[in-house]
Write a structure and sequence with these properties.
alpha+beta; Rossmann fold; Chorismate Mutase Domain, subunit A; five-stranded antiparallel sheet; 21 strands; disordered C terminus; binds adenosine-5'-triphosphate; tRNA(Ile)-lysidine synthase
Length: about 425
């Protein structure tokens, strides 16, 4: 889910409150309901505990008493094999809260996380060896798909919330699973707070420092990538001239645009790459390739589509979704007779093809032609276009075969291949859906 930290500017008319029925969100709902805006209490029924039905009823009663509208969504399904219950519940809760806030017409969703939650998050992240992005903990406000998720009490000590709830005689649910030592957060709570009762403020402050350091690192990465990378290629030679910390910061940011690479891959890539080296590293969803001192991301190839006859006999863009790209046909010279392009067979490379780059040159193996043109190995699979008689017409990434060119004064169309990844995101999306 794409997220941005741009602050809200307009005053909201409607507010959604993520309402579990616990102490904190009950107090938050109480405050919101007294503020004069229209409030929607959104409850997620995880279906994990026998009391979940009673909790939903309790939440509805409290919301009604406070004059707030109430919505409840049941999570369907169960964790996948190997997925933790916590991760499954969190992902489902986020989806459900987003859906309920959207249905209520509220673009502001309040969560009742407070300073102690932030302090615990900081430590849990530290225990996992997180970098500044993880140590920064939960953001105060974050836009995700049209909804601003806000945590107005992130700086509030837990005691202040408890005092408010007691002062107003609020009733709330105590979730017995909060004491379940199978969950890391509960184990941490049970040991940390008795031993360090006053550490909450200091740990939350440490999270704020991490947040600042992280913002700074993001700014530096954006500035570095503006000079080191184009739409597809990261300049590894220039990256290697940066200080090690700055190089891994920029590389991490570039990788994040393509794949959820493990942190260890950043280190491996920087140590294993040598100038001029051709290397590949598998990464979730595809692979990274170092080629001619550039780093490229290639999505894992699907099955090559079956050979098919297509009509490219007029100018335009012809998306080939199975091949993740389009043929672009324009009136230009040199080109190919439209009648020949109207019936071409598109297929992957078979192995023995010969390609002729220019009218005066001699045909050579496709592999040699690709090397000469600097077409990287992972881009050499196709598609290729052929006439019915087997004559090669064009190769994605290389261009037209000169043997297919029309005579100078004949009508002709030039054909070239455009990868989806080379298009601006919105354009690629709209075409893919067509
Ligand atoms: N089942 C739920 N339905 C709606 N919102 C929830 C739910 N569980 C958690 N939240 C939201 O996420 C916040 C943090 O969740 P967390 O699990 O720490 O709190 P909790 O112990 O369930 O309840 P509380 O924070 O209200 O005391 C809650 O304050 C609440 O805003």
């Amino acid at each position: 889910m794409a997220a941005s930290a741009t602050p809200r500017t307009a005053e909201p008319e409607r507010v959604a409150v993520a309402f579990s029925g616990g102490l904190d969100s009950t107090a938050l709902l109480h405050v919101a309901a007294r503020s004069g805006v229209q409030v929607f209490a959104c409850h997620v029924h995880h279906g994990l505990q026998p009391q979940a039905d009673d909790w939903a009823l309790h939440c509805e009663r409290v919301a009604t008493e406070l004059g707030a509208a109430f919505a409840c969504e049941h999570l369907a399904g169960a964790p996948a094999r190997g997925e933790s219950v916590e991760a499954w519940a969190r992902a489902g809760r986020h989806r459900a809260l987003h859906d309920m806030a959207t249905a209520a017409g509220a673009d502001l969703l309040l969560l009742a996380h407070h300073r102690r939650d932030q302090a615990e998050t900081f430590l849990l992240q530290a225990l996992r060896g997180a970098g500044t992005a993880g140590l920064a903990g939960m953001p105060r406000a974050q836009w995700r798909e049209g909804i601003c998720w806000a945590r107005p009490w992130l700086d509030q000590p837990r005691e202040a919330i408890l005092a408010y709830a007691e002062q107003h005689g609020l009733r709330w649910i105590e979730d017995p699973s909060n004491g379940d030592a199978r969950y890391a957060r509960n184990r941490l709570r049970q040991t940390l707070w008795p031993a360090f009762p006053t550490a909450e403020a200091a740990l939350a402050q440490a999270a704020r420092w991490a947040q600042q350091a992280n913002e700074l690192a993001e700014e530096v990465a954006a500035a570095d990538l503006a000079t080191l990378s184009g739409p597809e290629r990261l300049d590894l030679a220039a990256l290697a001239r940066l200080s090690p910390a700055r190089a891994s910061n920029a590389l991490r940011a570039w990788l994040a645009q393509h794949t959820a690479a493990p942190a260890s891959l950043v280190g491996r890539l920087l140590t294993e790459w040598r100038p001029g080296g051709t290397l590949s590293w598998p990464a979730p969803g595809g692979a990274l390739h170092a080629y001619r001192d550039g780093l490229f991301w290639a999505e894992a190839p699907g099955h090559a589509p079956a050979p098919a006859e297509i009509d490219l006999g007029r100018p335009g863009r012809f998306p080939q979704p199975g091949w993740r790209g389009s043929w672009l046909v324009e009136a230009a010279t040199p080109g190919i007779a439209p009648a020949r392009l109207a019936r071409v067979v598109q297929r992957s490379r078979a192995g023995a093809e010969q390609f002729q780059r220019a009218p005066g040159s001699s045909p050579r193996s496709l592999k040699k032609a690709c090397q000469e043109a600097g077409l990287p190995p992972w881009r050499r699979g196709g598609p290729l276009l052929f006439e019915a008689n087997g004559q090669l017409v064009a190769v994605a990434g290389l261009g037209m075969d000169a043997r297919a060119f029309a005579a100078k004064d004949e009508p002709q169309l030039a054909v070239r291949w455009l990868e989806d990844s080379a298009l601006p995101q919105s354009e690629g999306d709209s075409e893919a859906g067509a």
